[in-house]
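Figure S7 source data.
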Amino acid sequence: MTEEITMKKIDTFAEYGEAGPAAETQVEARDFSLFYGDFEAVRKVSLKIPKKKVTAMIGPSGCGKSTLLRSINRMNDLIPSTRAAGEMIFDGHNIYDRNIDVVTLRARVGMVFQKPNVFPKTIFDNVAYGPRLQGVKNRQELNEVVERSLRQAAIWDEVKDRLSANALGMSGGQQQRLCIARALAIKPEILLMDEPTSALDPKATAKIEDLVGELRKNYTIVIVTHNMQQAARVSDLTAFMYEGVLVEFGKTRQLFTNPENPQTENYITGRFG
Amino acid sequence: MRLETRKLLDKAFSGLGLIAIAVMAVALLLILAPIIWRGSKAFVFKGTIEHRRVMLEQFGRGNAEKYRAEAAEVAAARAPVYQMLNDFESEMKGMERSERRAYKKPFREVEKGIKVLLGPIPGERMPVLLRQQYGQTRWDRTLVKLHEVLYSEEWDYSNPEAMGVLVEKPRIDLFKGTKLEPLFPYLEDHIEEMMRPKQTFYWQFITDTSKDSHIFGGIWPEVLGTLYLTLGAMLFAIPMGVVAAIYLCEYAKEGRVVSFLRICISTLAGVPSIVFGLFGLAFFLNTIHVSDSKSVLAGSLTLSLLILPTIIRSSEEAILAVPRTYKEAALGLGAGRWHTIMSVILPASLPGILTGIVISMGRAAGETAPIIFTAAVSVGAPLKIWETLSQPTPALPWNIYNLCTEHEAVDEIRHVQYGMVFTLVAIVLLLNLAAILMRARISKKLRG
Ligand SMILES: Nc1ncnc2c1ncn2[C@@H]1O[C@H](COP(=O)(O)OP(=O)(O)OP(=O)(O)O)[C@@H](O)[C@H]1O
Ligand SMILES: [Mg+2]
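Tokens for the predicted adenosine-5'-triphosphate complex:
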């Protein structure tokens, strides 16, 4: 019964090898909580995000997906009065330890935001921003990084003739792919994407989804989405959150076709959320 | 609300808006038009042969050959005047003592009037004061002075009920039947030959130094002083203001201290400028002795304090208006706070910051009170750049005020005063224009 309804909605699944959660862990949350003042937006979440896989986060609005995602590169630090509890392990260290250098952490964990947020600079300067930060000055080297990143983000052909044009002149979909290129240029180990296609039309969305499929070969990707189809299409693993709690986490096909938790089932079949 | 009412309201509002704009435009015109009209007379006027003589002798400007030829013709036209004066003096010698006495005073007045009009009488000893070495340089003043030679002014108190009335009496009546009688019609008829008015475009008014406290020459020391003071103030205020704004927006933790600081800054913006002037005197000159006497340095520092609040507040607003997403993007790429500010936040807020700078630059250029005690003197030479550290300077706002309150012969040089006002307004407008263009270019670059 459940399977039928679900299968009606979801028709394509990402095809990945059978590595699953057993694969090597990239980031691990251990009883991780995040507070906005007194409000606990993420509640004692424990999960292991595997290397070189796409992990999707789904759940109703306000359930803490973005908060959890932004906890992975400590973007929440920007908001005053946030507080973390528990551990978030990356590369053997709890990134909330006092002696962690946030700047280096963020250079290793790239992020793509919900709305494309290109700098009001040229396309080239946007992509070269990260490498320049890391001290790359050589023009040749910069050119290479920029081209490689733009190619990886599948936008090279569209912009190669106008690298010195202002990035704000591009379409929304192009801007988002430029943001991805910019994030890739710092050669991150993890790429966090917070609803990267919610501001885009279907065509641009399809391009980004294809891109995620490409990028999973080399990067660990965590993607937040409201689009069930999208989660199914692009992800290897899916985490379902509800009111700050991680309700279910598992292989995407399994979670969608045979969820263990009735809440998950309800959400997927569209009975709430 | 019904559609009709909404439409009516919309119309009423746009009507009001248009009226407001029109009123402002008219007000601006009413203010600017006289400034431009009168100010332009310092630059464009009918100059007499005396003006050309001043230019040649004092500023080494003009064609000496041509001047000499013209001067010869003028001397010929003036010769009868001096002849008549001479003749009358000899005539006086032959008069009886009492009669001579009666003529003596009026004659001296006429003689003096002619010296003022045409310059020193040839052959007499050169006066020491520069202003007495030349006649009237401007045609409009020439006509006024001619009138003073032709008519004497007397107060008529015959009606004890009313106030005294000023009456003009033709001087010619005093000299009826003497050898001086023909002088008056001659002056009236031949004034053009004697003065040779010619349309003159004296743009060097801005770049010439003044001679004999603004009687001749231009206003370069004032212009330069104003530029020094304004740019000096900017030199201190821009870095301080922008850094303070960055600190308040990006580094300071919101709390009591920051709120208190903000209140202080707002209060500072409302402090009367004369208080800043006194503070500048008390602090920069008397306490920390930035220079021994008034100086451009002290004035610039005082002015910079005056405009600091404006710069801080406008910069703060500009920085806060930068989309948060830029900051997130930069930090997300592993930029530190400082680097985020320098590479993303400042460039994006530059147009806004520039606007604040523009406004305060105009203010600094025009402020009088803060420089009275700290930087301004009425007369001075143009300063070399290193002299600004220790020397006071004339400056347009102060000298405009000073000319009309303290200059001993301000009526003679109204054109200088108007010229200064014109120049000050022009400088402020030009500075603003430059900054507006710059701002437009930058925001165009940002927008793509
Ligand atoms: N800056 C903040 N200050 C206080 N509370 C916040 C802040 N940002 C988010 N929250 C709260 O934390 C909870 C989780 O927010 P979060 O943005 O993570 O939700 P989300 O799952 O990403 O929702 P959406 O799908 O709408 O993006 C929400 O209840 C929200 O109201
Ligand atoms: Mg969200």
